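Quick illustration, no need to memorize.
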Amino acid sequence: MANQSEFDKLAKEITDCHKCTRLVKWREKVSIEKRASYANETYWGKPIAGFGDTRAKILVMGLAPGAHGANRTGRIFTGDRSGDWLFRAMHKAGLASQPESIARNDGLKLANAWVSTAVRCAPPDNKPTPNERKKCANFLTRELELLSRVKVIICLGSFSLTAICDELQIRPRPKFGHGVVIDHERYKIVCSYHPSQQNTFTGKLTEKMFDGVFKTAVKLAR
């Protein structure tokens, strides 16, 4: 079982990373120009480490930090609509202490769950490149080593499923589909549409569908 100092060391290495020139330029540009509604806030403007319970049995994998969400607040899925959906569902499933995630110091605690992303910097148009994902892959490798109790991985979207399949060397790569459960020798991988506005505003992902994913994950993690 890894201790907190090992998680802290990994978090510092992630936060200090400057490997991807395009992403570094973009995240810093966004943090200077800001969105008008956050003009008086100081943006984080750095890569985002994972967050949650270090003894977690459930790992939630997203795509990348939001430009005006995590890139602003400094905590994954915090301060944007995707996070509103995620933590509401996690709270309902008994994995989060509260249904919303507004700021790093808002008191949110996760129980039996860890939240992370395939790419650690906010990308332009929410579209990191495959090469940028590969440059981040070592962080995921080490995160999984530290999270030794994880049994279930929830992949939010096909991009995070690709990252997990590459990490675990799953070939051929299974077809992504909402609610699909993939059996791996060590993990159960549960696929879900990403709670992006593109999916939630159009009804492609409903609260009932999203709640079902977490209900399945909790059951498989027992």
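The two ends are 19 Å apart (CA to CA).
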